[in-house]
């Protein structure tokens, strides 16, 4: 066979396949609801994601680094000359080494240095561009962080020079921070709250206002308490946390899965029946295979894959467990965490943790958050980000030199 003839036929075949692909795309895009199939969404359709505050997308590349500030008016770029891909990778390597290790003094030193670097390289230029240069006198503004690359694993919400010498040069002293895996995820979460998803959301709106139980467990808190997971240390204060929840959600306002009831099948069965869920216990993450990270139950791990395979009509999830907001290193741009899995599959407001948290302080944060969200006598999870911010700042004041105690708590959602 003539090699040139064979190559020509191969080229012709590729051209024919490309033409067929284009024709199929045209047919799909002619269908109602699929007009933008495999196309990037028009930026105008994503701007409403910033309806309640700017979304900051931090782009890290080998060529240059910028923050793209998304508001309802449009997008503007803020150059970040102090940030580079190499410096971000180096900082991430040090960060992961200490947060997964046992050296406490080195951990605190590296975390303190990392937070300062994040402020200088990323947060300060962004907040200055937004005009957030001092602690607010009135209502605190909100900012949503959407990092990329190595920054997806670093605590942007806690960036700053903390302690008396810092002079308020911290994110926590200027804004209330949340995370979003994508603009579209935040937009969809906002749309759900505004009732644009369908008739089922009328019931959700009632639940957010704390009205009634509804059917399917609406208005009930699912409490999963696992102080003793196989192969993990005993967590003494899980029982205390459980008591806090059952006191604030008494009687038929909660479902409790504890002891031998806290098993995978029971939890998976109860999740779709509850708008609100609180996990208290151990979590784990595999940095090389983040889809296998999850929550440790009595009979094994409830993984990211397990949760991602379902869909929920959830409103609020509090993951008082270790490493529930920690992603992986193999795909740094992908938000593969338990926090993100619950958010993607229907839970609008999710509180999680970046690494192992102190058992006693986890109770302090949970108690403070829930006290604020139930202060009116009704449960108002829509204020979760502000409640978490107010719970963590006093810890930061008391333990400024020990960031490992207060940095890990994060909020994802609108």
Summarize the structure in words.
There is one protein chain. The chain folds into three domains: 1-39, no CATH class; 43-179, 2-Layer Sandwich (Nucleotidyltransferase, domain 5), CATH 3.30.420; 198-412, 3-Layer(aba) Sandwich (Rossmann fold), CATH 3.40.50. 37% of the residues lie in helices and 16% in strands. The chain contains twelve helices and 14 strands. The strands form three sheets. Strands 7-6-8-12-13-14 form a six-stranded mixed β-sheet, sandwiched between helices. α7 runs parallel beside α11 and α11 (359-373) crosses α12 (384-398). The radius of gyration is 23 Å and the shape is globular.
Q: What are the defining features of this structure?
A:
six-stranded mixed sheet, 14 strands, five-stranded mixed sheet, 414 residues, Rossmann fold, alpha/beta, Nucleotidyltransferase, domain 5
Strand and helix map with partners:
Blueprint: H1 3-29, H2 43-46, E1 55-59, E2 66-71, E3 74-79, H3 85-99, H4 104-130, E4 142-147, E5 176-179, H5 183-193, H6 200-208, E6 221-225, H7 238-248, E7 254-258, H8 264-270, E8 276-280, E9 283-284, E10 294-297, E11 300-303, H9 304-308, E12 316-320, H10 338-344, E13 349-353, H11 359-373, H12 384-398, E14 409-412
Parallel strand pairs: 1-4, 4-5, 6-7, 6-8, 8-12, 12-13
Antiparallel strand pairs: 1-2, 2-3, 9-10, 10-11, 13-14
Helix pairs in contact: 3-4, 7-11, 11-12
């Amino acid at each position: 066979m003539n090699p040139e003839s064979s190559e020509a036929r191969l080229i012709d075949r590729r051209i024919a396949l490309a033409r067929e692909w284009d024709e199929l795309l045209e047919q799909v895009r002619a269908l109602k609801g699929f007009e933008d199939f495999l196309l990037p969404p028009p930026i105008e359709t994503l701007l409403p994601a910033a309806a309640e505050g700017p979304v900051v997308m931090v782009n890290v590349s080998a060529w240059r680094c910028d923050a793209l500030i998304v508001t309802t008016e449009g997008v503007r770029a803020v150059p970040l000359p102090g940030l580079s891909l190499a410096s971000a990778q180096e900082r991430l390597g040090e960060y992961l080494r200490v947060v997964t290790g046992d050296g406490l003094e080195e951990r605190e030193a590296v975390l303190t240095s990392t937070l300062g670097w994040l402020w200088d390289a990323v947060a300060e230029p962004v907040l200055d561009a937004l005009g957030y240069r001092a602690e607010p006198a009135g209502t605190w503004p909100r900012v949503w962080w959407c990092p990329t690359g190595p920054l997806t694993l670093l605590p942007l919400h806690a960036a700053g020079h903390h302690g008396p010498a810092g002079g308020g040069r911290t994110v926590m002293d200027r804004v209330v921070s949340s995370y979003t895996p994508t603009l579209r995820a935040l937009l969809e979460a906002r749309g759900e709250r505004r009732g644009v998803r369908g008739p089922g959301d009328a019931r959700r709106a009632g639940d957010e206002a704390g009205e009634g139980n509804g059917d399917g467990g609406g208005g009930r808190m699912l409490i999963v308490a696992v102080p003793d997971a196989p192969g993990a240390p005993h967590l003494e204060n899980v029982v205390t946390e459980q008591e806090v929840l059952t006191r604030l959600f008494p009687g038929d306002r909660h479902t409790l899965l504890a002891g031998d009831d806290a098993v995978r099948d029971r939890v998976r069965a109860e999740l779709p029946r509850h708008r609100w869920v609180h996990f208290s216990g151990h979590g784990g993450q595999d940095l090389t295979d983040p889809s296998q990270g999850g929550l440790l139950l009595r009979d094994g791990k409830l993984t990211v894959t397990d949760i991602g395979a379902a869909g929920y009509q959830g409103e609020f999830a509090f993951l008082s467990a270790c490493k529930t907001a920690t992603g992986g290193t193999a795909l740094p741009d992908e938000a593969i965490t338990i926090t993100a899995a619950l958010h993607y599959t229907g839970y609008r407001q999710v509180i999680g943790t970046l690494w192992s948290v102190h058992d006693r302080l986890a109770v302090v944060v949970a108690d403070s958050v829930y006290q604020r969200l139930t202060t009116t006598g009704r449960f108002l999870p829509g204020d979760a980000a502000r409640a978490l911010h107010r719970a963590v700042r006093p810890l930061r004041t008391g333990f400024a030199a020990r960031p490992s105690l207060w940095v890990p708590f994060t909020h994802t959602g609108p």
